[in-house]
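User: Hey, quick favor. My workstation is busy. Could you predict this chain's structure for me?
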Amino acid sequence: MLPQAIDFRAEADELHKLLSTLSEADWARPTLFKQWTVNDIVQHLHDGDLMAAASVAGPENFAAFRAARQALIAGGLTRLEATRERMNGLTGRRLLDTWHATMNGLCEKLSAMPSDTRLKWAGPDMGVRMFTTARQMETWSHGQAIYDLMGVAREPTNRLRSVAEIGVRTYGWTFANRGQDVPGPAPHVRLTGPDGDIWTWNDPNPENIVEGGALDFCQVVTQTRNVADTALCVTGHPARTWMDIAQCFAGPPETPPAPGARLGRSAAA
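Assistant: No problem, here it is.
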């Protein structure tokens, strides 16, 4: 299986394990992520996997999938409401089983594709490896709100390296997506992985650098935490400007959470 698909599946399996312990009432509880419920978050992940499967099926399938969703939004629904509409009452345990089965099928399809395949997405087209990593990143980042809600500390793994990779690669995207000029060269990024390994990207530059724990960096670029809620050391104008608005996921520009806004019980403990 494609190494990135192995990581994606492992990420989803870990979240599945937590979700399997939830009561029906828990699925309706709001999280600190925009007050989305657990149902909302898993529906969003499932809808993303369905859109990914449409992309794998070909450009025409992907275009049709997006057009159907955009029609709901054009009709006056918010993106969240449009997803709820598309799910047609799929919630709780049935949602859990359906999402997990779809994810497994998607991993198999992605692994069967030629390594040089490029796939359509809401943002720029991506190679199949980075496309698969993007699904892992979404699963990991949205899952954080559920861990926080339930007061469960999630043990970081070396799968974070893939999330960090997409975070580093989207430095320019963060600004282009906002119609802003890139403030300078890509900062040097020096992170310590869960096992103590040092991961680095870009040319060394002590005057333009982001350094610290890989978990902190991944939380900032996925907007699950404000940079002020982490122990990252950020030096230089490009690095500081980036970390203030970092966004490694596709879609319209999103404002990072305010300091302390997404610190659940597991984070504050």
